[in-house]
């Protein structure tokens, strides 16, 4: 019976649909009338060649109106058929029936794409609310930078502290950078007011600051050079230890991928990197 129940329902908002379409037709008719008027006016100016009326300002205004009309037309697609959706997460199947998913994170240059920000994205993906044995995260480093490779290893060390923490206290914000900047006191979770949580949060925050400092040291001591001529490197990031101390917390699979690049072979930028993945 559970398999026959849908996970979401969608309903067309008929009242909004009628109002939106009336507005679209009215507004569209007004724009067509304006364009017709502007076009006739400009043709008359060219035909009469009235030197007292400047042609260029009118042409620029007409061109601007055409651009704004086109932008308005593009924005009406979502208004043409408004739909309300309702989801039923309680109908999701058990963890054993969920499919495996792969998450691809693409980066190429640790200078243009700061390593701390990329690692926060990586940690957020690893902390998704999904069975750990069915979640696989791949970091595609198209530049083959040693900085990114070392940063991934540092992120793995911090994950062994971060994942048990947010699972234990049901933390909703999975990105550590966003979490430590936000105030979670309004979430209504009684666990957040306990002295144990406050002490552990402070400890995790210290670990996060140490993690950022280690990445900054990696950037200082390692070349950020990226090359279009390098060998492939695929590394499963795993030190054989799950969780923190005696807490055997399962962590999703994390793989670092840097594809081979040669100057005589087209690499097709990020599209080529995704094809490799």
TrEMBL record:
InterPro entries: Cellulose_synth, Nucleotide-diphossugar_trans. GO terms for molecular function: cellulose synthase (UDP-forming) activity. The keyword Membrane applies. It is found in: Endomembrane system. Keywords: Cell wall biogenesis/degradation, Glycosyltransferase, Membrane, Transferase, Transmembrane, Transmembrane helix. UDP-alpha-D-glucose binds at residues 112-113, 142. GO terms for biological process: cell wall organization; cellulose biosynthetic process. The keyword Glycosyltransferase applies. It is a multi-pass membrane protein. One of its GO terms (cellular component) is membrane. The chain crosses the membrane at residues 24-43, 55-74. Pfam families: Cellulose_synt. Its main location: membrane. This is Cellulose synthase G2. It comes from Olea europaea subsp. europaea. The lineage of its organism: Eukaryota, Viridiplantae, Streptophyta, Embryophyta, Tracheophyta.
């Amino acid at each position: 019976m559970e398999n026959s129940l849908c996970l979401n329902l969608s309903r067309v908002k008929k009242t909004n649909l009628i109002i939106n379409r009336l507005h679209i037709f009215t507004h569209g008719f007004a724009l067509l009338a304006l364009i017709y008027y502007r076009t006739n006016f400009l043709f008359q100016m060219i035909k009469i060649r009235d030197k007292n009326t400047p042609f260029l300002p009118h042409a620029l205004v007409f061109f601007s109106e055409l651009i704004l009309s086109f932008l308005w037309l593009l924005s009406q697609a979502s208004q043409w058929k408004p739909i309300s959706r309702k989801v039923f997460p309680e109908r999701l199947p058990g963890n054993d029936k969920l499919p495996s998913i792969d998450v691809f994170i693409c980066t190429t240059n640790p200078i243009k794409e700061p390593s701390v920000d990329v690692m926060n994205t990586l940690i957020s993906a690893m902390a998704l609310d999904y069975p750990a044995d069915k979640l696989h995260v791949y970091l595609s480093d198209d530049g083959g930078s040693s900085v990114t490779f070392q940063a991934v290893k540092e992120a793995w060390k911090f994950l062994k502290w971060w994942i048990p923490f947010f699972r234990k206290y049901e933390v909703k914000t999975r990105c550590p950078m966003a979490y430590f900047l936000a105030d979670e006191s309004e979430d209504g979770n009684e666990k957040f007011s306990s002295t144990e949580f406050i002490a552990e949060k402070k400890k995790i925050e210290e670990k996060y600051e140490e993690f950022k400092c280690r990445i900054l040291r990696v950037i200082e001591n390692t070349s950020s050079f990226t090359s279009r001529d390098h060998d492939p490197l695929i590394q499963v990031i795993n030190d054989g230890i799950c969780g923190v101390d005696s807490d055997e917390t399962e962590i999703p699979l994390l793989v670092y991928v840097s594809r081979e690049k040669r100057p005589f072979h087209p690499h097709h930028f990020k599209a080529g990197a995704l094809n490799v993945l």
